[in-house]
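Ticket #4471: complex job returned nothing on first submit. Input attached below:
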Amino acid sequence: MALRHAVLAALLDGEYSGYQLAKIFDLSVSNFWHAVPQQLYSELAKLETEGLISGRQIIQHDRPNKRVYTVTPAGIDELERFAAVPAKPGIIRENLLVMVQAVDHISAPAVITQLESRALVAAAKVELFERTLQHLRGDLDEEEYLRNASPVGPYLTCLRGRRFEQENYEWFTSTARLLRMRAGIQAEGETSA
Amino acid sequence: MALRHAVLAALLDGEYSGYQLAKIFDLSVSNFWHAVPQQLYSELAKLETEGLISGRQIIQHDRPNKRVYTVTPAGIDELERFAAVPAKPGIIRENLLVMVQAVDHISAPAVITQLESRALVAAAKVELFERTLQHLRGDLDEEEYLRNASPVGPYLTCLRGRRFEQENYEWFTSTARLLRMRAGIQAEGETSA
DNA sequence: CATGATTAGTCAGCATTTTGACTAGGATTG
DNA sequence: CAATCCTAGTCAAAATGCTGACTAATCATG
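Support reply: We reran it on our side without changes. The output follows.
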């Protein structure tokens, strides 16, 4: 019973189908919760039978019909209870860091390549979050938005996500550079003097 | 088949028992891989039957005997193969951020309390990592350590962990303060003018 | 005008993770 | 000197997560 609260929290923000939710999870929600589409479909079904969300069919003529969901008052109550008990500490699983942990014992170039490609991914995510934040706050500046605007929750989690990816970018980049240097490998664009 | 590489990577650094490894996972390794003790015991058993680690019994008289493990050459090969294929993107699951995402719809004080208590935890982790880094580098300064010293992998992942917890601390703290302000709740120590 | 991408899912089943209960002896603390 | 903590695990079962295969219609591309 863990995914359910992430789904409920994501649905607070609008009426979405499983398919749409899968995209949202892939982008913004992945900052604090990871889930693959199939998990969402089955969790939505369970949440609906439990009455925490309610779905309705949308007939579409240009593309397949879909079922969109909204959080019910019972769903809000569930979130309320969820927030009342201490959250379990967060978990991280990052294979690339496992590789770096082992880098003294294995071939460094493989790890360096991965660091460099993940740095690009991280940079793209930073930009995406940047745009999301701009979009959320519209023409207000950040301070004003934070002071008054609503909803503020998604903005705050997005701030955390952006920061996380910024730090990822910097660590991936500097770690790759360092390992290159130690291995005596020239970075792309560098030349030996 | 994912935990196995984290276990192998952790064991590169010395000869540990399941029990010791559980503590190590709880502290430093949790920066990049989360696992509970029972997972480690069963994973160690599997790794040993597969010949990727080898264990030996240590007879102790003052406390229960234990079985300690070291990575075999086959285990190193396994890590090598692991590093040769692109790592899956990392995953995060953080219930406290789920609560913040939902904060506009639920009781804010519950969330604020949790943010404040997790800020303390994060601050303690920062200090722990700080001490770990100092211990690893001994009397060298960081630049020199990074340039030459060995092993460098655990130092690098610890740097990432420290940074992550620093950012957690700052985000928890500033988010709690902001939510207090928006709710019109005085922070501890503050007084209304 | 065929090929592939996108939307919008379903179904079955394996794999992994987590929880909880239990053992057992020595060390520590009130 | 009884109660609790720490070391060092084992076992079974429940809960959760993930993979892969499949359907089916429309839209975009070459």
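DSSP finds eight helices and four strands in chain B. Closing as resolved unless it happens again.
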